[in-house]
């Protein structure tokens, strides 16, 4: 399905289940597959309790890649148009991964009274990667027997992108991450990175919201893309947040530590019901 924001911008989306709306936003260069693969095993257990709405961001997946929309502010405006049309005045839950977590904070600043809970998976906080506090890569928990049977170039690609590299994590990474990267429009992504920051300081807006709904922030202790230190300040502006820093996980936390990821998300959903 597609949402037509403008004649030259159509946003691809999929819906699953029924009930309270849940908007799920993937990270930069990926697509719907990343979020459906991570969250559907959890949500499908309560299929009619939550209506999951998965989107492909502009320039990614099957959405339009018109360069005029290659900025975080314009993408946020498109998402706001989508919410207004398909969620309207209803309350909803919000989940964002990496760059999608940055966009989710922008949506929280706009829809505070409608968002009953926010879930941020390895969220990007600092748009300028030179300013991020990220750890240097020095660990590897690779299955060397598995990697040794691969083409050397393929083995290097997997070990460079997965801290926990084995057959299972590599297959998920290929299916959920790389498949989306192959679809993304590289020219759009390059232009977007030049307009990566919101004009408005979203942190300052959220600080003044007194947002007190159950929140979840999941980070990887060895995340070399967005780190975990820049996210720590979110505890000061999200007083109902659980904050997890998982050892032996990089930026693919949901793939490298699936059991803990599932448990944390399930706990968040339980808090949304029991502790409101």
TrEMBL record:
Keyword Hydrolase: yes
Keywords on record: Hydrolase
Pfam families for this protein: Abhydrolase_1
The keyword Cell membrane is annotated on this UniProt entry: no
Domain AB hydrolase-1 residue range list: 20-258
Gene Ontology molecular function: hydrolase activity
Protein name: Alpha/beta superfamily hydrolase
Top-level lineage group: Bacteria
Family annotation (InterPro entries): AB_hydrolase_1, AB_hydrolase_fold, AB_hydrolase_sf
Record PANTHER family: HYDROLASE, PUTATIVE (AFU_ORTHOLOGUE AFUA_4G13070)-RELATED, MONOACYLGLYCEROL LIPASE
């Amino acid at each position: 399905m597609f949402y037509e924001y403008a004649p030259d911008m159509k946003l691809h989306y999929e819906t699953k289940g029924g009930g309270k709306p849940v908007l799920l936003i993937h990270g930069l260069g990926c697509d719907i597959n990343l979020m459906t693969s991570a969250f559907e095993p959890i949500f499908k257990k309560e299929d009619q309790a939550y209506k999951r709405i998965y989107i492909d961001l502009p320039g990614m997946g099957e959405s339009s890649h018109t360069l005029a929309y290659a900025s975080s502010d314009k993408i946020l405006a498109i998402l706001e148009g989508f919410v207004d049309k398909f969620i309207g005045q209803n309350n909803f839950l919000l989940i964002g991964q990496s760059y999608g977590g940055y966009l989710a904070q922008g949506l929280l600043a706009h829809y505070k009274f409608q968002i009953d809970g926010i879930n941020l998976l390895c969220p990007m906080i600092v748009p300028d990667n030179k300013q991020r506090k990220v750890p240097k890569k020095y660990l590897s928990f690779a299955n060397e027997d598995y990697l040794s049977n691969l083409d050397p170039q393929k083995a290097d690609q997997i070990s460079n992108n997965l801290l926990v590299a084995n057959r299972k994590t590599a297959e998920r990474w290929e299916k959920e991450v790389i498949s989306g990267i192959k679809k993304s429009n590289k020219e759009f992504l390059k232009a977007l990175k030049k307009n990566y920051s919101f004009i408005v300081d979203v942190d300052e807006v959220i600080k003044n919201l007194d947002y007190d709904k159950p929140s979840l922030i999941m980070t990887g202790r060895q995340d070399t893309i967005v780190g975990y230190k820049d996210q720590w300040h979110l505890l000061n502006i999200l007083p109902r947040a659980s904050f997890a820093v998982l050892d032996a996980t990089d930026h693919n936390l949901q793939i490298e530590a699936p059991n803990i990821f599932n448990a944390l998300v399930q706990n968040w959903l339980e808090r949304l019901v029991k502790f409101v």
